[in-house]
Amino acid sequence: MAPRRTARVLAVPAATPLIRRAAFRRAVEVIPGRVRITTTASQRRRTTTTASRRRAIQSAANQPPAEDPPVTNRRGINSRGTNRRRTNRLPVQDTAPIVTLLQNPDRQRGTSSQAEFGTKLGLRRLRIELARMTSNPTDGCTVELVDDCIYDWKAVILGPLGTPYEGGHFKLRLHFPQLYPARPPFLMFLTEVYHCNIRNGAICVDILYSAWSPALTVEKILLSIRSLLSDPNPESPMNGAAAELYKTDREEYNYMARQWTRRFAQPE
Predict the structure, then answer these.
(1) What is the domain extent for residue 253?
(2) 219, part of any domain
(3) pLDDT in the model for residue 138
(4) What keywords would UniProt list here (predicted)?
(5) What's this model's pTM, rounded to 2 decimal places?
């Protein structure tokens, strides 16, 4: 009897991930249309879902935590839910000022420092100008402090010779802002003056307004006003009636100016 032959069965190893991946690729090549469409759609859904979650997270980060809606218990009483999710994040309206101060902690300090620097500069400038004008008085102009306050001055301008204001002593008041010389001083006549560009003490002169420059000094201001007494400007009047009289009847205008000077501008 012939010996029985036993068939040898070889175990086939399980497919590795690389083999499965290669098989999948071959399947894709065989039916590319359906598989590719399905794969692309799934990727698109995953991308859309990820973008939606990202936008939701960003929106939640920019909004304060909302309160839970009221819950009705068995007795019909509305109460707030207690299952509120705890969070350490502060509302945006509370964190924004903090972030602003941290980003620029010297903002308020810088503003006060600039004002303090401007005040010191103005004080130094006023002391220099006062010392100069008191030690070497300008022709026809004198100044002095009011109640020893460096920001309040009193000035006297003598009427120019050969004008209707000759012989008059015209008193003025000057008040300097803390930002002087970056800002012009406030100036007004204390003496009544009949003039085209002066009314109720107010003066219409461009160097005190639009033409002001930090290079101008008190001495230049007073000299400009004294020059204005000699040469009125009826085209930019403060006293409309006086300006009209100056244009139409110069003799009558000069008469009125002399009368006011004799009545209101005599030295004490």
Answers:
(1) 114-264
(2) yes
(3) 87
(4) ATP-binding, Nucleotide-binding, Transferase, Ubl conjugation pathway
(5) 0.58
The answer to whether residue 6 is domain-embedded is no
Q: Say what the pLDDT of residue 106 is.
A: 42
204 is known as an active-site residue: yes
User: Is 84 within the bounds of a domain?
Assistant: no
Share of the chain above pLDDT 70, in %: 56
Query: With a cut of 50, which residues of the chain have pLDDT below it?
Result: 9, 30-39, 65-66, 68-69, 71-74, 77, 79-111
**Structural domains of the chain, count:** 1
The answer to whether residue 256 is domain-embedded is: yes
CA distance 137 to 131: 10
CATH number at residue 197: 3.10.110.10
Which residue out of 141, 149, 196, 204 is catalytically annotated? 204
